[in-house]
TrEMBL record:
Organism field: Ixodes ricinus
Domain of life: Eukaryota
Signal sequence interval, chain numbering: 1-18
Name recorded for this polypeptide: Putative lipocalin-7 1
Record key words, sorted: Signal
Length: 75
């Protein structure tokens, strides 16, 4: 339940207005530093899955250190 509310906060965070007097944490901080999300970081179930990967657009500043992306794994 806590993970659900943490995801909801992260999803709604961009729509909350901040004034210069407040400091709002970035939504990615919830996903990167909250210990409840570590269980979603194990790539092995995804990598061994026959499911197709659909890529989503992301800003270049987040993608500039990525060297390659494999969309399908062939045995």
């Amino acid at each position: 339940m806590k993970a659900f509310f943490s995801l909801m906060i992260a999803a709604l965070h961009p729509f909350v207005r901040c004034t210069p007097s407040c400091e709002c944490p970035a939504p990615e901080d919830f996903l990167l530093y909250d210990l409840n999300f570590f269980r979603f970081r194990d790539p092995w179930p995804f990598l061994t899955s026959p499911e197709r990967l659909y890529l989503k657009y992301g800003p270049f500043k987040l993608l500039e250190n990525i060297k390659c992306i494999i969309s399908e794994l062939i045995e």
